[in-house]
């Protein structure tokens, strides 16, 4: 299987730091799309600003590189105008849940058919290592040199509470699982959210003494467990991976089309 056909090679080498997990996420995403056999001309990738959002520049799909935190708003407009297209939105934790948090919860509430990939490296990497909504209490960053006092979001719990009909979590260590989860998310009809724990050794790892990229990925291996495992019962601190929610629910574009049909019939009778 070759995924080079999905790459804009003229934009390489990429800008990511050595050891960054985002390249693994890109690899997993392209393998998922290839496995699904989706024509690349039917894919639209929309991104905001940040290390993770650079993905849209490297892939040979229809792409929009938009404002920070506004990728889901742009994607919503594209999807409503061309509902037959497959919309994928790669985001970082700050892009998705800080300035973009409002768009995130409302996209989930509407259940619009978009796949949101939240690459959670727990830091604003592109702009110098500031803490994000997912950094967590006690972590160190350039803007919290004595320790962050903010509690972090639980992305999966937030997405479920807001109404997303598909919610999953995996890591950059679990590469086969990553592709499988993304395949299911992209195939799902409705708003699908996949959180991917993706290491940033340059800013988060170094500041918080978590070692190099290999050490951080070993942390994903030892610090996570499949949903509902016995290991989780024995060690509540483990982070669960897998699919939390997968259910059918009315999709926003289809409901919007019904309303438009009613309006046109009413107008025709007038």
In short:
Helices cover 40% and strands 17% of the residues. With 270 residues, it is of the alpha/beta class. The mean pLDDT is 95.
Q: Please, could you describe this protein's structure?
A:
With 270 residues, the protein is an alpha/beta fold. Helices cover 40% and strands 17% of the residues. It has helices at 22-36, 55-58, 71-81, 93-97, 101-110, 155-162, 175-187, 201-207, 213-223, 230-234, 252-269, and strands at residues 43-47, 62-65, 86-92, 114-120, 166-171, 192-197, 224-226, 239-246. Helix 1 packs across helix 7 (175-187) and helix 5 packs across helix 6. The chain starts with 21 loop residues before the first helix and ends with a helix. The mean pLDDT is 95.
Task: Give descriptors for this structure.
11 helices
Task: Describe the SSE topology.
Elements: H1 22-36, E1 43-47, H2 55-58, E2 62-65, H3 71-81, E3 86-92, H4 93-97, H5 101-110, E4 114-120, H6 155-162, E5 166-171, H7 175-187, E6 192-197, H8 201-207, H9 213-223, E7 224-226, H10 230-234, E8 239-246, H11 252-269
Parallel strand pairs: 1-2, 1-3, 3-4, 4-6, 5-6, 7-8
Antiparallel strand pairs: 5-8
The strand count comes to 8
Helix content: 25-40%
Largest sheet: 8 strands, mixed
The number of helical elements comes to 11
Low-pLDDT residue intervals, each spanning 5 or more residues: none
């Amino acid at each position: 299987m070759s995924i080079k056909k999905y790459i804009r090679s003229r934009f390489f080498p990429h800008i990511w730091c050595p050891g960054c997990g985002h390249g693994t996420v890109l690899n997993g995403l392209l393998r998922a799309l290839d496995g699904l056999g989706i024509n690349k001309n039917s894919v639209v990738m929309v991104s905001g600003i940040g290390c993770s959002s650079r993905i849209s520049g490297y892939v040979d799909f229809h792409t929009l590189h938009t404002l920070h935190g506004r990728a889901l708003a742009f994607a919503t407009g594209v999807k409503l105008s061309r509902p037959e297209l497959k919309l994928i939105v790669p985001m970082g934790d700050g892009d998705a849940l800080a300035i973009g948090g409002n768009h995130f919860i409302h996209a989930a509430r509407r259940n619009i058919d978009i796949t949101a990939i939240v690459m959670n490296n727990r830091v604003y990497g592109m702009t110098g290592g500031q803490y994000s909504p997912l950094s967590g209490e006690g972590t160190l960053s350039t803007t919290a040199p004595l320790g962050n006092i903010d509690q972090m979001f639980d992305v999966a719990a937030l997405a479920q509470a807001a109404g997303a009909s598909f919610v999953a979590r995996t890591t950059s260590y679990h590469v086969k699982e990553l592709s499988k989860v993304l395949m299911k998310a992209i195939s799902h009809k409705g708003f699908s959210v996949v959180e991917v724990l993706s290491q940033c050794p340059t800013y988060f790892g170094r500041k918080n003494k978590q070692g190099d990229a290999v050490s951080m990925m070993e942390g994903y291996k030892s610090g996570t467990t499949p949903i509902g495992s016995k290991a989780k019962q024995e060690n509540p601190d483990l982070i669960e991976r897998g699919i939390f929610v997968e259910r059918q629910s009315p999709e926003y574009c289809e409901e919007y089309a019904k309303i438009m049909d009613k309006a046109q019939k009413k107008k025709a009778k007038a």
